[in-house]
Each structure stands twice: as structure tokens, then as C-alpha cells.
């Protein structure tokens, strides 16, 4: 009896959905196939190859542009309930604008969607996973407020062609990664370093563009198709180094998470007050005439507020936050790693399973009870099929989610493993591998082979439970 109770505790709720994810530039290849136009990652890896480990690029990547049948077969082998992938804007709309729709682009995504559905796998589609058409970048990209309309037009094309079969959507993936990555650090395509102004222009336009797509869906498609939309945030959990660091840790959370959540999910909308204050202080100290965080009008606040049907959680890791009280303006914190947290193959990534549960509890406390879907979580290793550390990672993080569901009553309805197969890990090239399947990047066939973690994930899904692993 004791064993039976223990088992049940490790069961996921009935109907819990398991999936795996990928993103267009990381897997598709076919960078100039047919009429596909250049995007900012194509341009970045070709013009600034030294930004990427081993001068690698995604020209071919996993060649999913040609090997999509095999991808679907793998999704079916795992027994996935859904597969998350993204649409390459420049493959569908070669001009970036809606004036010309690529036939081959349409065919490609129709094939993937129909192929998945034939196997009973739901497509979950991301509209934007960092691969802006270069033509739009040339016009200022995410810093040009007109992108709100360009993105809206693109979204409408996507919805009109695919929303009859796709019911779950992510508008934009991880603004933190690409706005801050591009403008605050200069390491993400297109690599424009402009931390004081560029980052915040990108932030504001991303939030408005997301809302635009959501409003278009609401007005023109929702009644017919009944889908669900939101944006996906990258959520690094911040834990105070000592209790005295709690106050600034909360400001750090607002800066890293609230900056992309408050406008959409909070009751008041707009920027988090703590972020407004930090950026205003900094701007003043630097001699700007006003805050470089562009203000929202009341209309804009209303336009963005509430544009979600669930919260999409991309979570991998955590950091400790320590106050550096040097009296300078801005957010005076240092980020550190707890000595007990194990490193991974990615420099930014240490293992702290409790972080995922704490992060979601924080979100519920700030923004209210809502449905959460884990849209990315996974482990970074080097090459190898016996990936026991990845299995360990999945077990530990999934156990924390179960605790969140059972003890805290969190409404978590789905989980997405990042990633289906090893792929182009942005500036880490092919060195950091997150896949359930290994990909042989030296063979023209890009042969895919299941790792031990694929077997683990398959059994987990089949039993809807972690109880099959007695060592837990
Ligand atoms: C996410 N960090 O990126 C992306 O959505 C994926 O495309 C990517 O492959 C995956 O996670 C693994 O990296 C991240 O520095 C990029 O904390 C950077 C960070 C986290 C996630």
C-alpha cells in the first residue's frame, strides 16, 4: 500500500501533455532553398563567423528542410502529444512583408503540420524564434515601431493558412534572449551593441507586436478556431545570496522577468515600477533628457494587457543575487552560482531543480492563478548517446513540477523537452547538445540516433509517471 501511494505521487495528472521543441534556424538548414530570403542569423553567421564557436553556422543544421519526415517519425517514436517548432518568417514571406507568400514555404509547413496530425501529434507553433528577415533588419528591425504592423501582417498570413489545424501558438520566443542578447550584449544576431537605448526599444516593440498578433487572432480567427496564444519568456530564477539581498533580488526578477511579463499578465499592465525606476535613474545619471525606457501610452497599456491564454515557461537554470552597495545608479547586483550547483556544457547553465518550482510560484503570486505550460526545459551536454546526466536532469526538474502541481496546486498542464534532436545552439554552434536524439553533423544524411534519454522520455510519456524509476 505504501508503495502504491508513493507511486501515485509520481503520476502526472490525467491528460497531462508531453512534447518536444525545436526552432527553425536551429534545425531547418535550407537557408537559401527555393525563394527563401536571408534572415539576420544567415547574415550574422556569414558576415561575423567569429561570433560562433568553431565558425559553425546553420546553413544545413539538421537539414530538417529535407528530413522533416524523419523528425515526425522521431516525435512518433517518443509518443509525443505535441511537437513545438517555429516558422521561418523569411521562408514564408521572402520580402518580410505580406505582399508575396512563398508557395514552397507554405508547402513545407503544411507538410510538417499534416504529417504530425496524421500521427496524432498536435503542432505547437512559434511565429518568431529569432530569425528576422534581413530586409526588415535593414529598416531597423525590432527598434522600428513599424515592426508591430509588419509582425501583425506576418501573423495574419500564418493564421490564415495554418490556424485551421494549429491550436496552440507562441507568438514570440524569449524577448530577453534576443533583445538583451542583441543590444545589451551584442552577441545575438544582428550583434548591435546599444544597451542603453536599443534594448528597451526592442522590449517595447516586442510587447506591442505580440499584442498585435494576439488581437488579430482574437478578432479574425478565435471564434472559428478556438486556439490558445501567448509569448514565451526565458525565466532565469534569482535567489538572494543572503536574506539582506532579497530586496534587490526582487528588482532583478522584475528586470529579467517582469520586464517581459508585467505588461501582459499583471492587472495594471505597463512596465514594472521597479524597472521604470532603475532605468530612469540610470538614464538621468548618464545625461539623457528622459528615461531610455520608452513609456507606454494608456492606450498601449490596454492593448497589451491580458493578451494571453496561458503562461509559456522556458526555464533552464538559476543564479544567486548579491547586492553590491556601491551607491551607483541602476541595478547594483552581482550574479553568482551556488557551489553545489553542477555545471553543464553551456557556460550560463548550472543545475538547480528547485528553481523551476520557485519560479512558477513567483509568477502565480505576482500575476495570479493561470495555466502554465513548460515550453522549454532541457539539459546541455557534449556529444554522446549514454546521456545519464540528461535523464537525471529531466527526473529532478519534473519531480519539482510534480511537487508544484500536487503540493502547491499549480495549474501546469504540459511540458516540452528542449530539444527533439541536437541542433545549432546559436553562438555555441554544435558544441552544446540538448537533444533527445543525437545528430551526426559530419554525415550528409544528418543521421539521427536516439540517446538513452529518448528511451527515458518515451517511457515517462507512456506511463504518465515518474514512478517507473524506483531510484527517485
Ligand atoms: C533558449 N541563457 O535559449 C532558446 O529558446 C533555444 O533556442 C535554445 O536553444 C535553448 O534555450 C538552449 O539554450 C536560451 O543565457 C539562451 O540563460 C540563453 C539562455 C537561456 C536560454
Automatic annotation (TrEMBL):
Keyword Signal in record: yes
Residues that span the membrane, as ranges: none
Methyltransferase in keyword set: no
Example GO biological process: carbohydrate metabolic process
Annotated keywords: Glycoprotein, Glycosidase, Hydrolase, Signal
GO molecular function terms attached to this record: beta-glucosidase activity
Subunit structure as annotated in this protein's UniProt entry: Homodimer.
Family according to the record: Belongs to the glycosyl hydrolase 1 family.
Name of the protein this chain belongs to: Myrosinase 1-like
Organism: Manduca sexta
Amino acid at each position: 500500500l505504501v508503495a502504491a501511494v508513493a507511486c501515485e505521487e509520481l503520476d502526472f495528472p490525467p491528460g497531462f501533455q508531453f512534447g518536444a521543441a525545436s526552432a527553425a534556424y536551429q534545425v531547418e538548414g535550407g537557408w537559401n532553398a527555393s525563394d527563401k530570403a536571408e534572415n539576420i542569423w544567415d547574415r550574422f553567421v556569414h558576415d561575423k563567423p567569429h561570433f560562433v564557436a568553431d565558425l559553425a553556422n546553420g546553413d544545413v543544421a539538421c537539414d530538417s528542410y529535407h528530413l522533416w519526415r524523419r523528425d515526425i517519425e522521431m516525435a512518433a517514436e517518443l509518443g509525443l502529444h505535441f511537437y513545438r517548432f517555429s516558422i521561418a518568417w523569411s521562408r514564408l514571406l521572402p520580402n518580410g512583408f505580406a505582399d508575396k507568400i512563398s508557395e514552397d514555404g507554405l508547402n513545407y509547413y503544411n507538410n510538417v503540420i499534416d504529417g504530425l496530425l496524421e500521427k496524432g501529434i498536435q503542432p505547437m507553433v512559434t511565429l518568431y524564434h529569432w530569425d528576422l528577415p534581413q530586409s526588415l533588419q535593414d529598416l531597423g528591425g525590432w527598434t522600428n515601431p513599424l515592426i508591430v504592423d509588419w509582425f501583425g501582417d506576418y501573423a495574419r498570413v500564418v493564421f490564415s493558412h495554418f490556424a485551421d489545424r494549429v491550436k496552440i501558438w507562441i507568438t514570440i520566443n524569449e524577448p530577453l534572449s534576443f533583445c538583451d542578447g542583441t543590444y545589451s550584449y551584442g552577441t545575438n544576431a544582428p550583434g548591435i551593441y546599444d544597451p542603453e537605448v536599443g534594448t528597451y526599444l526592442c522590449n517595447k516593440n516586442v510587447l506591442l507586436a505580440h499584442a498585435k498578433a494576439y488581437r488579430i487572432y482574437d478578432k479574425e480567427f478565435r471564434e472559428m478556431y478556438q486556439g490558445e496564444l501567448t509569448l514565451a519568456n526565458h525565466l532565469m530564477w534569482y535567489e538572494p545570496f543572503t536574506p539582506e539581498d532579497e530586496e534587490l533580488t526582487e528588482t532583478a526578477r522584475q528586470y529579467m522577468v517582469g520586464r517581459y511579463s508585467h505588461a501582459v499578465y499583471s492587472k495594471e499592465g505597463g512596465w514594472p515600477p521597479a524597472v521604470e525606476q532603475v532605468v530612469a535613474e540610470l538614464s538621468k545619471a548618464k545625461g539623457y533628457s528622459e528615461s531610455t525606457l520608452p513609456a507606454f501610452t494608456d492606450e498601449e497599456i490596454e492593448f497589451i494587457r491580458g493578451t494571453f491564454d496561458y503562461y509559456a515557461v522556458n526555464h533552464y537554470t538559476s543564479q544567486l543575487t548579491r547586492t553590491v552597495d556601491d551607491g551607483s545608479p541602476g541595478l547594483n547586483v552581482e550574479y553568482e552560482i551556488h557551489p553545489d550547483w553542477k555545471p553543464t556544457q553551456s557556460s550560463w547553465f548550472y543545475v538547480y531543480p528547485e528553481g523551476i518550482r520557485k519560479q512558477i510560484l513567483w509568477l502565480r503570486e505576482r500575476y495570479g492563478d493561470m495555466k502554465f505550460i513548460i515550453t522549454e526545459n532541457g539539459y546541455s551536454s557534449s556529444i554522446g548517446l549514454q546521456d545519464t546526466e540528461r535523464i537525471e536532469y529531466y527526473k529532478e526538474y519534473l519531480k519539482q513540477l510534480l511537487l508544484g502541481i500536487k503540493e502547491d496546486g499549480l495549474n501546469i498542464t504540459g511540458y516540452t523537452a528542449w530539444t527533439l534532436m541536437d541542433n545549432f545552439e546559436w553562438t555555441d554552434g554544435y558544441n552544446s547538445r540538448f537533444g533527445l536524439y543525437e545528430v551526426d553533423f559530419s554525415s550528409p544524411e544528418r543521421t539521427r540516433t536516439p540517446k538513452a534519454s529518448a528511451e527515458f522520455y518515451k517511457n515517462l510519456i507512456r506511463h504518465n509517471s515518474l514512478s517507473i524509476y524506483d531510484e527517485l
